[in-house]
Amino acid sequence: MQGENFINSEREIKVSFGYQCNSPRGIPCSAANGHEIWSGSEMPRTGSFSCLSGAALSANATLANTNICNGVIGGEILPSLDSPKSFRRVPSSPSLPRLDILSSSLQSSISNLSCSSPSPLDSPETDSFLLKPMSAPSRTDSFLNAMEVQMAGGAAGEDRVQAVCSEENGWLFCAIYDGFNGRDAADFLAGTLYETIIFYFTLLDRESKQNVPTANGCFEYFHDDGLVGNKAKPTSRIDGKNYASAESLMKKTADRKVEVLSDSFRHGVLDSLQRALSQAENDFLYMVEQEMEDRPDLVSIGSCVLVVFLHGNDMYTLNLGDSRAVLATYDNANDMGQTEKLKAIQLTDSHTVDNEVERTRLLHEHPDDSMPVVGGKVKGKLKVTRAFGVGYLKKKKMNDAVMGIIRVHNLISPPYISTEPSLNVHTISRSDHFVIIGSDGLFDFFSNDEAVKLVLYYISSNPYGDPAKFLLEQLVIKAAHSAGFSKEELMNIPAGRRRKYHDDVTVMVIILGTNHRTSKASTCGSWLLGCWFVRGGVGRTVAFGSVFFLVGRLVRHMVAQRGQ
């Protein structure tokens, strides 16, 4: 395979990490470049993912750390979170009291971070929680149920990536923050959003526990709208005449309540994600207001946001901007061996002026402005219609703080950039193979279908390889060809100047593990022994991985023979 030297080069690959589920302890697992790959524990896997790989390539020249929030973000928080070359185990609530910092922010007591006044919250119950000091969650504090987690992530140019996993509890948090005009907003998100989400998840858990179970053990916990992932589910009426006995009626009623409770929980998770993002936005813009006199450029800095959260068999997505989550799934679960049946489904919306729905919404929200879109950009400044930060397109006060070409001279009816995310939940099935999560830099060169075909091609022939890094390699080859360079010539162009040829690119590939495939397209060596995933050069294999693969095939053959 071409690009071996590129794969081994660590100069521009700023982030590269991998995670494999359910690997027996005592067997070493390391990358070809010497970096450690996290292997899961002996505990049985309860989630729906098998492997994760992540990689990020820089193109922009960006300061490593800025001094936002009195230096707390760059000087204390991010160094305790970043692990760009491998997963590492950390407490679910790190030693730095970030939860206390956030709760202080929520209560307008901002002695540690000069970040923001609270956003209006919905209910007295929530307010009562906010009055209590926040502390590290215990196993009983949240449905996430983790004392420790595995974490990886880092920065590449203006992009930031994070992955947090609790394999034994069946959940995975992945986020890409695609910054623009600077990395301050992406840094802020990387330093605070995960903790804010955990805080709101804890509130969700406490609120759900307040619902008292009925005599049959089911919670009376209903939502009138029944909305999950922006899709309405029709309500059904239970009629006792349709059942043969009172026992049957009680069972049907209990099943219905369990179903509604499950939908209500999903709705609560989506609501928690949205509330956390809103809180982070308020915090960031408050910080910008405090510091824009010394740093007026902060008003133009923003970030796209993509969060993918797997919990059990549910995959939640939240996005602002033009990053994407693309699901690779089979049309026919009974014919999964045929690779041509694999299709790409985009799980996220593209919030750009090129999206006719977004463009129409923008024009509708600004009837008094004849030019909300200028030169294919919002007010001539941004192609994305929804984003985190970028305060000068949201508040007149921030726009007035800047001069020259940055300032918008006809800011008639702000805000022009929305912070309303697109939310969705997808129930993972046996037909689902993998998910590609990427910043827009990836999709500047590959369509959804092309990215899926590349990953499928790679994992079919390299079941122990790194699909995220492979996608970056193919992107560089394509970008170099488009510019008339060799790959080496393109990579020798300094960051900053190379932005002319490609953007910062961040990619994660999640191999889903509920589909116990036996086809050559599978990345799982054995459905009993889990998924072996070794990060390294293209074509490399590991002897013990091959042994487990053969054992897995033998076990499946024996099971098949016994069933005949």
Automatic annotation (TrEMBL):
A Pfam family the protein falls into: PP2C
GO terms for MF: protein serine/threonine phosphatase activity
SUPFAM superfamilies: PP2C-like (SSF81606)
Transmembrane segments: none
UniProt cross-references to PANTHER family, sorted A to Z: PROTEIN PHOSPHATASE 2C, PROTEIN PHOSPHATASE 2C 40-RELATED
Protein name: Uncharacterized protein
Source species of the chain: Gossypium arboreum
